[in-house]
């Protein structure tokens, strides 16, 4: 059996590794000539960590991960602690720790595990078609590829998605802009082993440790889409949006490098119930584009890869039946993740100011039990829990 995989990002690379380990021949086609990960870092929660462990990457993943031993929320004006608690109860409950990592390093690890030289870059898919015998993908450079099945891991702007669904799926603006990047750890801003988040005014400033003595940072601000802001105005924009915020926030703004800081308007896509059509399956952001508010976008793609590989091992079923089984196992899970992230997004970013204010007040009473219980429920919904 031969699988064509469209997309060499997190989802596509994980799928290629998982299928290869299952004895399935794979070919990976990536649109860009050089992959530049969207976003500076990613929090791989224990459900994703277990997937990467199962794909043989336990040791290299831990070499890339920061030590996130605790979690804290701080008041935006004074920097005073609203709540702080250990992540140990989460680790004890689910059997694995979270691993925040730089995206570029994660991507390199995945490509090296699969075999970077095997990925065909500069292959932007134009269209796909299938018949009773297989599936063909045609690329914009005039070349084509054929296989027994095709996995569309071509991201939130997926070209293949419409072929599966039969209709276009517009992206929904989530209402906020995210700036993110990496800085050297500075304990005058936040502890080196803690996920620290300053909250107020429907905005967030968050820092998370990754390897190499670095913080992954992000700023969230509810804004209209399409503003004329770029790296030239970045520091001034952040200074304006976070005027009056606590000294650690001002210190962070002063230290960031605008040339390596990303500005992203956050979107998601309304969940849909069809992930496959015949010999074609959607995976990762092509199947469930979500906001990053519960940190499960990349983890969900890793889960997809594990489930897909398991379903394809069923020798008694046709290719279409195996992919239908994948759909049955994933569609409810990924819909739940997208909607959970959307709900968290709205609460965090002030869609209903009274609800957001109530959340701030609840943080001052939080012992960690409630926050961690929600995380544990989400993590335990994964296929390896």
Task: Write up this protein.
- This is FAD-dependent urate hydroxylase.
- Pathway: Purine metabolism; urate degradation.
- By secondary structure, this protein is of the alpha/beta class.
- It has one domain: FAD/NAD(P)-binding domain (3-Layer(bba) Sandwich), CATH 3.50.50.
- Helix content is 36%, strand content 26%.
- It contains twelve helices and 18 strands.
- Strands 5-4-13-14-15-12-16 form a seven-stranded mixed β-sheet, sandwiched between helices. Strands 7-2-1-11-18-17 form a six-stranded mixed β-sheet. Strands 8-9-10 form a three-stranded antiparallel β-sheet, with no helix packed on it.
- A hairpin with a 4-residue loop joins strand 9 (135-139) and strand 10.
- Helix 2 (46-54) packs parallel to helix 9, helix 4 (88-94) runs parallel beside helix 12 and helix 9 (297-312) packs antiparallel against helix 10 (319-348).
Helix-strand layout with pairing:
Blueprint: E1 2-6, H1 10-21, E2 25-29, E3 41-44, H2 46-54, H3 58-64, E4 70-75, E5 81-86, H4 88-94, E6 99-102, H5 103-114, E7 119-120, E8 125-130, E9 135-139, E10 144-147, E11 149-152, H6 161-165, E12 172-184, E13 194-200, E14 203-210, E15 214-222, H7 234-241, H8 247-255, E16 262-268, E17 276-277, E18 280-282, H9 297-312, H10 319-348, H11 353-363, H12 369-379
Helix pairs in contact: 1-5, 1-9, 2-9, 4-12, 9-10
């Amino acid at each position: 059996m031969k699988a064509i995989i469209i997309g060499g990002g997190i989802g596509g690379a994980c799928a290629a590794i998982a299928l290869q380990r299952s004895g399935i021949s794979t070919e990976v086609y990536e649109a860009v000539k050089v992959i530049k990960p969207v976003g500076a870092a990613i929090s791989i929660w224990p459900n994703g960590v277990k997937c990467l462990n199962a794909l043989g990457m336990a040791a290299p993943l831990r070499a890339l991960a920061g030590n996130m031993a605790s979690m804290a929320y701080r008041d935006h004006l004074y920097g005073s602690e609203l709540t702080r608690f250990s992540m140990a109860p989460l680790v004890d409950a689910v059997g694995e720790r979270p691993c925040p990592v730089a995206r570029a390093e994660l991507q390199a690890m995945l490509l090296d595990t699969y075999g970077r030289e095997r990925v065909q870059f500069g292959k932007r898919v134009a269209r796909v078609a299938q018949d009773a015998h297989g599936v063909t993908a045609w690329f914009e450079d005039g070349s084509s590829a054929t296989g027994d099945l095709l996995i569309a891991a071509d991201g939130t702007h997926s070209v293949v998605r419409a072929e599966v669904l039969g209709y276009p799926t517009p992206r929904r603006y989530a209402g906020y802009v995210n700036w993110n990047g990496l800085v050297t750890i500075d304990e005058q801003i936040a502890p080196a082993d803690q996920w620290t988040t300053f909250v107020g005014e429907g905005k967030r400033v968050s820092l998370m440790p990754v390897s190499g003595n670095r913080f992954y940072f992000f700023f969230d601000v509810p804004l209209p889409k399409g503003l004329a802001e770029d790296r030239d105005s970045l520091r001034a924009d952040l200074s304006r949006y976070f005027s009056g915020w606590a000294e650690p926030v001002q210190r962070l703004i002063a230290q960031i490098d605008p040339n390596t800081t990303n500005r992203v308007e956050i979107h998601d896509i309304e969940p849909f119930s069809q992930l496959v059509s015949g010999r074609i399956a959607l995976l990762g952001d092509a199947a469930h584009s979500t906001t990053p508010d519960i940190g499960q976008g990349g983890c969900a793609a890793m889960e997809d890869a594990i489930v897909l590989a398991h379903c394809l091992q069923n020798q008694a079923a046709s290719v279409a039946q195996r992919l239908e089984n994948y759909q049955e196992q994933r569609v409810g899970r990924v819909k739940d993740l997208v909607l959970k992230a959307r709900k968290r997004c709205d609460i965090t970013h002030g869609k209903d100011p009274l609800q957001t204010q109530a959340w701030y007040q609840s943080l001052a009473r939080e012992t960690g039990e409630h926050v961690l219980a929600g995380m544990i429920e989400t993590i335990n919904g994964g296929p390896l829990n």
